[in-house]
Write a structure and sequence with these properties.
Strand order of the largest sheet of chain B: 1-4
Oligomer: heterodimer
CATH class of the largest domain in chain B: Mainly Alpha
Structural class of chain A: alpha/beta
CATH architecture of chain A: 3-Layer(aba) Sandwich
Number of helices of chain B: 25
Strand order of the largest sheet of chain A: 6-7-8-3-9-10
Strand content of chain B: under 5%
Strand content of chain A: 25-35%
CATH topology of the largest domain in chain B: MetI-like fold
Helix content of chain B: over 70%
Number of strands of chain B: 6
Helix content of chain A: 25-40%
Distance between the termini of chain B: 48 Å
C-alpha cells in the first residue's frame, strides 16, 4: 500500500523546467533517500509533496488525498506530513518548548499540558530535554535541527520529509542529527530524505534514487545503488562524491 | 612628547585620556574644539537662566495651568487619583518585575562620585557675570553667582567627590536591590519638596501680591499629595514583591492589561466624572451585556461542533456583514463596539475553545471584557459633570497626554490592519489599503488638522457631530496609522521566506501563520522605529495649538505671556519656551530609555 504516489509530476520556474515528469511510489514505513547534483530538482520535488511548491502537471496523492488547489486538502496533507528544512526555520521569537507545542495547540487543538508533555517526550527522544526553555538562537546548529525534527514530530505526522537536513551543519554536529533520524527510521516512520550523506543512505535507506536535470535517472536498493549502479550518470555521481 | 610621558602610558586614567581624547593630532584638535564649544554654550545657558531679567516665577506660578488648564479646583482630587493610579501601577510593576537585580555599595558610591564630580565641574565652570541689556540699550554687567555662593557649593561637592572616590572601592559584601535603591532616590526627591525653598509668588488676603516673594518649598501647595502618592507607590511596590514571592502567575498577565486599560479608565471615568443616568444603564448597558454574554456563550459552546464547523465561513461572513450594518445604523455606540468584539471572539474561539478548560477560560475573558468595554464606553460617551470656563476639561498637559495616548492606541491597530491589508493577496483590499496609506501620507499633518477642525463636519452625515478633540483624535489615528503601517510593512518584509514555509509545513492556516509567527517577529524588529514614531506623535500633538486647542504649548506661548491678573507676566515667552523644551525633553528621554530596556527584554529570542 503506497502512502505517497506521484504520476508524471512536472514543474516549471518561468521558462526553466525543474521537474520533467517524476513518477514514483513510497510505501508506508519506507525510508527513501534522494540524491543528486544541485539543481537536479530533488528539493523542488519533495517541496511539491506538501505544496510548498506548486506542480503544474501530473498528480500527487498523499495518504489518499489528492493535492489540488483546495486549501482544505492542502492543510490536511500538511498536518500529515512533517518537514525538516536545511536552514532549520525555527521560530526565533519562541522558546524551544513553544516552538514544538505551537502546532499541536493551534492546529491539532490539543490542550497545553498534553502538548507540553508530548514535547518533553520528543525532546528526550532527540536528546536535548534540558534545552526546553531556551530560545533557538542560544542553541548550536545541530541542536536546532533536532528541535526542528521534534517540532515536525509533534504533529504526529505519518510521513517526514527532510530537505538536506545536514547541509548547513558543522561536521561534528552532523552525526547527532543523523542519529536522531536513524532512530526515527527504526521506529517505522515513512521518510523521504534529500541528502548527500551517503553513509546514511547505505545504512538506513530502503531505496535510493538519483535525480538529474529534473528526471529520476536511477532507483535502486542501497546495495545495488552503491555497488552495482545501472546508469552511467549514477557512476559518475558516485565517483565524484565518494 | 607629553603624550609619551610616564603618566599617559602607565596610569589607567592617563591611558584612557591618551587613547580616547588625544589619539592623534586631529582628534586632539577635535577634543579641544568640542570642549571649547561645550563650555562656551554651557556658560551661555547658565548666564541666560540666572539672568536677573528672567522671571522664573512665571513658570512655577502657572504650573497648574500648564498641567490641567482650567480643571475645577473642587475636583482636584480626581487629578491626583489619576496620577496616583499610574504611580501605584508603577510601584506594583517594579515590585513584581524587578528580577532581583542588585547593586553593591561600591556601585552606589561610584554613581554618587560621578554625580558630585559633575556638580563640582559644573559649578566651577559657571560664569560669574552676565550681561543685562538696559532700557537705553547699554549693556550692564551683573554678578549672578557671588563668590561665596560658588564656594558654598564647590567646596562640599569637591569634598564629597574625593570621599566617594575612595569609598567606591570598599569591598562590602552587602548587595542592595536596585529597585529599592531607585525608590529611595525617588523618596529623596519627594523629601526635597519640603526642604528646598524658592521664591514663590504669594497673594495676601486682599489679593495683593506680597513683595518681596517669600521663600516657600518647591511644591508649596502640592507636597502633601506627592507624599501620599509616594507612600502609596511604596506600599504597592511591597505588594508587588510579595505577589512575586508567592509566585502568583496571573499577575504577569494582569499588570500589562492594567497598564493598557489605565489611561482609558482615567480619561473615561476618573478625570472626566461622567454624568451616568441609571435608567440608561438599565435600559441599554445591562441588556447589552446579557444578550451579548449569551451569544458569546453559544459561540464558545459550539465552536468545535462538527456540524457547525461546516458552516463556519458563511457564519463568519454573515457576522461581518451584520456588524457593518450595525455600525451604520443609528444605534447606541455600545452595541457597535460590542459587535466588533463579538466578531473577534468568533474568529479566535475555534482556535482557543478546544478543550473544556479552554472554553471556560475564554468565557470568563469574554464576560470580563464585555463588562470592561461597556463600563469604559458608558463613561466615555456620557457628558461630564464638571463645569469649566473653557468648555473642555482637557487642556494643557492633560490634553497632550490624551492626544498622545489615544493617538497611539487607535493608530497602532489601524496601522497593523493597513499593513496586513497592503500585503494581502486580495486585490480589492490591497488597493483600498494602499490608497488610504498613500493619501494620508502625502498630505502634511497640519493640513489634516485644519481638515479636522474645519472640513470634517461637512463630510460627516447630517446630525453626526463630534467635538474638536475627537475629530483631531480620529485624524491623528489615521495619520500615524498610515506611518505605522509602512513601518510594519517594512518589518513584515524582513521576515525570511523560510518562516512562512515552516509555518505552512506544520499545517497552520493563513490567520495563524500571520498572527502567531510573522507579526510577532515583524513587530520585534521594528520596535526602535515604532518608539521613534510614538515619540514623534507625542511631540507633534503640540501642533493642535494651531487649530485652537489649548495644549501645553499654546498655554506657554500665548496664555501666560498675556497674563496680567493677578500678577503681570506680559511678554514672558522666553522662560516658557525654555521650560517647555526641558519638559518635553524629560518625557521623551525617559520614554526612549525605557523602550531600550523593553527592546532588550524582547530581543531575548533574536537570532
Amino acid at each position: 500500500m503506497s502512502i505517497i504516489k506521484t504520476v508524471d509530476v512536472k514543474k516549471w520556474f518561468g521558462d526553466f523546467q525543474a521537474l520533467k515528469g517524476i513518477s514514483m511510489e513510497v510505501a508506508e514505513g519506507e525510508v527513501l533517500v534522494i540524491c543528486g547534483p544541485s539543481g537536479s530538482g530533488k528539493s523542488t520535488f519533495i517541496r511539491c509533496i506538501n505544496r510548498l511548491e506548486q506542480h503544474q502537471e501530473g498528480e500527487i496523492v498523499v495518504d489518499g488525498i489528492e493535492l489540488t488547489n483546495d486549501l482544505k486538502n492542502i492543510e490536511a496533507i500538511r498536518s500529515e506530513v512533517g518537514m525538516v528544512f536545511q536552514s532549520f526555520n525555527l521560530f526565533p521569537h519562541l522558546t524551544v518548548m513553544q516552538n514544538i507545542t505551537l502546532a499541536p495547540i493551534w492546529v491539532r487543538k490539543k490542550s497545553r499540558s498534553e502538548s507540553e508533555e508530548k514535547a518533553m517526550e520528543l525532546l528526550e527522544r532527540v536528546g536535548i530535554p534540558e534545552q526546553a526553555q531556551k530560545f533557538p538562537g542560544q542553541l548550536s546548529g545541530g541542536q536546532q535541527q533536532r528541535v526542528a525534527i521534534a517540532r515536525a514530530l509533534a504533529m504526529e505526522p505519518k510521513i517526514m520529509l527532510f530537505d538536506e537536513p545536514t547541509s548547513a551543519l558543522d561536521p561534528e554536529m552532523i552525526k547527532e542529527v543523523l542519529d536522531a533520524m536513524k532512530e526515527l527510521a527504526e521506529s517505522g516512520m515513512t521518510m523521504i530524505v534529500v541528502t548527500h550523506e551517503m553513509g546514511f543512505a547505505k545504512e538506513v535507506a530502503d531505496r535510493v534514487m538519483l535525480f538529474d536535470e529534473g528526471l529520476m535517472v536511477e532507483e535502486n536498493t542501497p546495495n545495488e545503488f552503491f555497488d552495482n549502479p545501472k546508469n552511467d550518470r549514477t557512476k559518475l555521481f558516485l565517483s565524484q562524491i565518494l | 612628547m607629553i603624550r609619551d610621558s610616564k603618566f599617559f602610558i602607565e596610569n589607567p586614567y592617563g591611558r584612557w585620556v591618551r587613547d580616547n581624547l588625544f589619539s592623534s593630532s586631529s582628534s586632539a584638535f577635535l577634543t579641544f574644539f568640542a570642549g571649547f564649544m561645550v563650555i562656551y554654550s554651557y556658560r551661555g545657558i547658565v548666564g541666560f537662566i540666572l539672568n536677573p531679567e528672567r522671571m522664573w516665577t512665571s513658570v512655577t506660578y502657572n504650573m497648574k495651568l500648564y498641567m490641567i488648564l482650567a480643571y475645577p479646583d473642587e475636583a482636584m482630587i480626581r487629578v491626583w487619583l489619576s496620577v496616583g493610579l499610574a504611580l501605584i501601577l508603577g510601584g506594583l510593576s517594579i515590585g513584581f518585575y524587578n528580577s532581583g537585580k542588585t547593586i553593591s555599595l561600591g556601585g552606589i558610591f561610584q554613581k554618587l562620585f560621578t554625580i558630585s564630580a559633575v556638580i563640582a565641574i559644573l559649578i566651577a565652570l559657571a560664569p560669574t557675570n552676565t550681561n543685562v541689556i538696559q532700557n537705553d540699550g547699554s549693556i550692564e554687567v551683573v554678578e549672578i553667582i557671588p563668590q561665596d555662593v560658588r564656594m558654598l557649593i564647590l567646596v562640599p561637592s569637591l569634598v564629597l567627590t574625593l570621599a566617594f572616590f575612595f569609598l567606591r572601592n570598599v569591598k562590602i559584601k552587602n548587595l542592595f536591590n536596585t529597585a529599592k535603591v531607585n525608590l529611595t532616590y525617588f523618596g529623596l526627591i519627594i523629601a526635597s519638596l519640603y526642604f528646598i525653598k524658592i521664591p514663590t509668588i504669594s497673594l495676601d488676603s486682599s489679593g495683593e501680591r506680597i513683595i518681596p516673594d517669600p521663600f516657600l518649598p518647591i511644591a508649596s501647595t502640592t507636597y502633601i499629595p506627592w507624599t501620599i502618592l509616594y507612600v502609596g507607590m511604596l506600599l504597592f511596590f511591597f505588594i508587588g514583591s510579595l505577589l512575586k514571592n508567592r509566585d502568583i502567575k496571573i499577575m504577569a498577565r494582569l499588570i500589562p492589561i492594567s497598564w493598557f486599560l489605565c489611561p482609558l479608565f482615567i480619561f473615561s471615568w476618573i478625570f472626566k466624572k461622567p454624568l451616568v443616568e441609571l435608567n440608561t444603564v438599565f435600559s441599554a448597558d445591562i441588556p447589552s451585556i446579557l444578550v451579548f454574554g449569551v451569544i458569546g456563550f453559544l459561540i464558545i459552546r459550539f465552536s468545535d461542533n462538527e456540524s457547525v464547523g461546516v458552516y463556519r465561513t458563511p457564519i463568519n461572513i454573515g457576522f461581518l456583514v451584520l456588524s457593518i450594518v450595525v455600525f451604520l445604523l443609528p444605534l447606541v455606540f455600545i452595541f457597535k463596539a460590542t459587535m466588533v468584539l463579538l466578531l473577534l471572539l468568533l474568529i479566535v474561539s475555534p482556535a482557543i475553545a478546544t478543550t473544556k478548560e479552554g472554553k471556560r477560560q475564554l468565557f470568563i475573558v469574554w464576560v470580563v471584557s464585555l463588562f470592561v468595554l461597556t463600563f469604559l464606553i458608558r463613561g466615555a460617551s456620557s457628558d461630564t459633570m464638571l463645569v469649566t470656563p473653557t468648555g473642555s476639561i482637557f487642556g494643557g498637559f492633560s490634553l497632550t497626554w490624551l492626544l498622545a495616548i489615544f493617538g497611539t492606541y487607535a493608530s497602532f491597530p489601524l496601522g497593523l490592519a493597513l499593513a496586513l491589508g497592503r500585503t494581502s493577496t486580495l486585490p480589492v483590499i490591497r488597493i483600498i489599503c494602499t490608497g488610504i496609506i498613500e493619501i494620508v501620507r502625502s498630505v502634511p499633518y497640519i493640513t489634516w488638522l485644519f481638515f479636522a477642525s474645519v472640513m470634517l463636519t461637512v463630510f460627516l452625515p447630517a446630525g453626526v457631530e463630534f467635538n474638536l478633540i475627537i475629530r483631531v483624535l480620529i485624524l491623528t489615528a489615521f495619520f500615524s496609522g498610515a506611518y505605522f503601517a509602512e513601518y510594519i510593512r517594512g518589518g513584515l518584509q524582513s521576515i525570511p521566506k523560510g518562516q512562512y514555509e515552516a509555518a505552512n509545513a506544520i499545517g497552520m492556516n493563513p490567520f495563524q501563520r500571520i498572527f502567531l509567527v510573522i507579526v510577532p517577529q515583524a513587530l520585534r524588529t521594528i520596535i526602535p522605529t515604532l518608539v521613534g514614531s510614538v515619540i514623534t506623535s507625542f511631540k507633534d500633538s503640540s501642533l493642535v495649538a494651531i487649530i485652537g486647542l489649548f495644549d501645553i504649548l499654546r498655554i506657554g506661548t500665548s496664555v501666560i505671556p498675556a497674563q496680567s491678573q493677578p500678577v503681570v507676566f506680559i511678554g514672558r515667552n522666553l522662560e516658557q519656551l525654555v521650560f517647555l523644551s526641558f519638559f518635553f525633553w524629560v518625557f521623551t528621554f525617559v520614554f526612549s530609555r525605557r523602550s531600550m530596556k523593553f527592546e532588550k527584554r524582547l530581543g531575548l529570542g533574536e537570532r
